[in-house]
Amino acid sequence: MPYTEDQLVLVPDDIDLARSPLAGHFSAETHVLGAFNPGLTRLPNGNLLMMVRIAEALRRPIHDGHVHAIRWDGENGDGRFVLDAWPLEHVDTSDPRKFMLTGPGWKVMALTSLSWLLPVELAPDGLSIIALHYDRAIAPNSSLQCYGIEDARISRIGDRYLMTTCSVSPERHSTTLYSSTNGLDWIFEDVVLDHQNKDMLIFEGLIDGHYWAQTRPLGDLYFAYPPGSEWRPGPSINLALSPDGHFWKPYRKPGIRPHAATVATARMGGGTPPILTEEGWLTLWHGVEPNGIVGIYRTYWSILDRHDPAIVIRTDHAPLLEADPALTRPIEHQMYLHDVVFTTGIVDAGDHYIVASGEADLACRITHIPKTVFLGGTTS
Predict the structure, then answer these.
(1) Residue 46, Cβ neighbours under 10 Å: how many?
(2) Helix residue ranges per DSSP H, the chain
(3) Residues near 34 by beta carbon (within 8 Å), at least 6 away in sequence
(4) Total domains in the fold of the chain
(5) Which of 343, 340, 209 is nearest to 274 (CA)?
(6) How far apart are CA 66 and CA 63, in angstroms?
(7) Please, is 189 exposed, middle or buried when counting C-beta atoms within 10 Å of its C-beta (0-12, 13-18, 19+)?
(8) From start to end of 252-370, where are the E strands?
């Protein structure tokens, strides 16, 4: 692809954990497992803002016959981060990002890191860092976020910024909403989607006076399409609409679904908040090809009808972005995953788009993609 710029702009070593919200809460040493999956928007001053997920993990999670996890605890009223210990004989630690509890009869997991959000201000072209705003970091502050806050997506609608995040806890794996008037100072609004409905992306604009969003509900059961169908059952990108951005109703029509002809998008979910172009809503999304424990994550694109986003005007079955080993070679010693690019933000920059992605669940990648790239594709 003829990208004019494509580079990593933030890596784990750029993060100062002495300024982390977790600093001083316990004696165990931590490290940055990843600084990745950034929400992206343009600030009123013209600079860009990445809201970066910082996955902070214990340096030695396994010792004394136990695996340990970080948890926010507010039971005593002081809101502290604490450590929990799980006996190794009761867990599966094959995935470096999490461990599964064995024996309950259904899937139960805990995380090897706790995520918080760091606002990182970039130059207008997104290629250099202006400031890391530790004083405006967003960390868990209630029991519904006790295992962390993940994967911000930022939409600007008029003079208001809306940011969706995944809040993780034993209570629920929910989507939570924040709002801002300046893109730097954020107010927690509420839970807006309940358990295991991830990758919520609010459209950057209203349709017939309503807010719209892409969602991705998860489950362990999917009903089969009939034999010969062009669609494959499994996780797909759904749609919802709302009168106020708080209360959401699922749209009756399906959104973007996996194609039966390829396993590259056997699992899929939203990437960037849809933005309006002359042709319709441009949305970048991820497809996952089953491979190993995690799979291969690639970025794809579609243009949706401006009045009914369930209608796909044009798309491309070839990936827009793939993981790039050349970019991560300088930080190869820190890598624990490969073949993963997870696109999470987009900003219009005139003749091109500035696209933000998480690379290998480790670093932040900025790519400049000419608008001419989206003139190709197919109509289905």
Answers:
(1) 8
(2) 325-328
(3) 12, 53, 54, 55, 113, 358, 360, 361, 362, 363
(4) 1
(5) 343
(6) 6
(7) middle
(8) 267-270, 275-276, 281-289, 296-304, 312-321, 341-348, 352-359, 363-370
Q: How far is CA 270 from CA 33, 173, 200, 258, 329, in A?
A: 23, 17, 7, 12, 27
pTM for this predicted structure: 0.96
Domain of 82: which CATH number? 2.115.10.20
Helix (H) or strand (E) holding 242: strand 238-242
**Residue 98's pLDDT is what?**
87
Q: Is 350 contained in some domain? A: yes
Q: Which parts of the chain sit beneath pLDDT 70?
A: 1-2, 378-380
Reported as a single tens digit per residue, the pLDDT across 117-155 is: 999 999 999 999 999 999 999 999 999 999 999 999 999
CA distance 84 to 116: 18
Calpha distance 50→56 (Å, rounded): 18
Question: 97 lies in which domain range?
Answer: 5-59+67-375
CB 130 within 8 A of CB 50: no
Q: Which residue has the tokens 């600084």?
A: 35
